[in-house]
Write a structure and sequence with these properties.
Low-confidence stretches: none
Mean pLDDT: 92
Shape: globular
Largest sheet: 4 strands, mixed
Distance between the termini: 46 Å
Structural class: alpha/beta
Number of strands: 7
Order of helices and strands: HEHHHEEEEHEEH
InterPro entries: ParB/Sulfiredoxin_sf (IPR036086)
Number of domains: 1
Protein name: ParB/Sulfiredoxin domain-containing protein
Strand content: 15-25%
Organism: marine metagenome
Radius of gyration: 16 Å
């Protein structure tokens, strides 16, 4: 962890296309992009989005008030649209062909090896990345770390299990 703290102070900002940062294990980012499209373009109620249901899901390790988190996300969108992304997105660099990812279900860690397609994983900044994808930005500021201690989330497998439950909660 100490090496990670040292890196945080010494890594310079680079610029990457947000499209290469959308990885197959991060369906949650796709939910965020879809949320912006549904709410901002189609006028769908917050509660009727998969993102809202995902945030409201208490089985995840991180739980938030879905109403507040959704409104904060919309505020972030407006801020980025006006001012661009000011804080670089933290990216982990993983050069191996496969990476170990995890999701937590019923308070148990489930580990899944996945093919590493582009060597990058979002460590911090999924909301900012989703906004960049929604706005179709060409390049975004990132800081790329050789992450030693970060557990790579696999929300895609988690969502595959939980999505039927989310759909039941959405008012048709």
């Amino acid at each position: 962890m100490l090496i990670d703290l040292i890196q945080q102070r010494s890594v310079k900002t680079s610029f990457l296309s947000p499209k290469i940062l959308l990885t197959k294990n991060r369906k949650d980012i796709e939910y965020r992009v879809e949320f912006l499209r549904n709410v901002l373009e189609s006028g769908l109620a917050l509660q009727n989005t998969l993102y809202y249901q995902f945030i409201a899901d208490h089985d995840k390790t991180v739980t938030e008030d879905a109403e507040i988190a959704s409104k904060d996300f919309i505020s972030l969108y407006h801020n980025i649209k006006k001012n661009k992304i000011l804080e670089p997105i933290a990216i982990g660099y993983y050069p191996k062909k496969t990476i170990k990812t995890r999701y937590i279900l019923n308070k148990k860690k489930n580990w899944v090896d996945i093919r590493n397609e582009n060597e990058f994983q979002v460590i911090n900044g999924a909301h900012r990345l989703a906004v960049a994808l929604f706005l179709n930005l060409d390049k975004i500021p990132v800081r790329i770390y050789r992450s030693l201690s970060f557990e790579i989330p696999n929300y895609t497998d988690y969502i595959r299990i939980k999505e039927p439950e989310y759909l039941k909660h959405i008012k048709q």
